[in-house]
Amino acid sequence: MKKKKKKLALVLSGGGFKGAFQIGALEYLLYNPVMIENEVLDINHFDIISGVSVGSLNGAFVATRQLETLKEIWFDKIIHEGPDIVYTSKYLEHGKPDIKKILTELVPDLSIWQRLLLIFSRSRQEKFARQVLKNFLDLEGLADNTPLLELLKKHVHLDKFKDVDYKMGFVSLRDGRYKSVSHHQLPNNKELQKAIMASSTMPVIWPPIPYIHTIAGEKFFDNVDGGIRNVTPLKDVIDEINSRAKDDEEYYIIVINCSTSSLPPIDPDPSIVDIAVRSMLDITMAEIFKNDLEQFIWINDMLRAQNLDKLKIDSKIYRRYKIKIIQPPRSLGGTLDARPEIIKAWRQLGYDTAKKETSTLDWNA
What we know:
single chain; 11 helices; Acyl_Trfase/lysoPLipase; hydrolase activity
């Protein structure tokens, strides 16, 4: 029987500054031999890369073979210059919201006399509430990610993608649907960079990317982080494999997930922003990934139990996949935690976890 050609797919989850975990894991995978079913491979290339949120950013640099540049951004620029290399904000300090500054921006400054009048006047209270609401609606985001766009303009261009299908995911706020777009579908560098920006634009933190269009004429409006609907774009990779897989090829999927179900405790007296970040970014991401993975494993187990490599039901093809899941055994910090010591710790944990997971020969989820 002819030996099948091994193909590699990489799936990168969302997770904000926890994305340093992915860089540590990729350092191990790309700089050390990896055992894949009794064959030692030096991984220097992935055939498919799919990412959302920080995974789309990291994935873009890996797909264009710029891991060293990516490491410099993470572990030189961000650690020594702070997150200003990625975004600027007067409301965030190392990723932590400054509640006092936010309230100062939203709540009109009133004199003592005006405050007294406010207590006894219903009309003044209503006017005050309308002004606070207007200020909130005018505040498109807590940060400006223009520096990130400048990084993408400098480093990520369509002509740098060689023999790879790179996919990024974002959500259009117009219809609430998740969109997965390949770099092949985008007409120029500007639309590519906007799509990556959209995939990494956390709602409330950064303003949406207003408009993206594809070569085919598709138009997407008000686009934000794909991680709010699809934390780990495993399905995007599976769909791509199903559309291109040949009988003499066998795909191996590596998933690098930044989230874990075990979250660190937050302050005993959290602010409303702390609560929003914990519920929307940390807990939601962990739960979506857990559900996605459980469904994938269930299908894989069913096919393995029947000793089948693939099964077609109606027009849909279900395949059995070889997969490695690299995810942190514990959490070191939140999604927006950009403290240098935390980023360094995520990097080391990613390296150590990738080493441990690839030391076993088992590629079955």
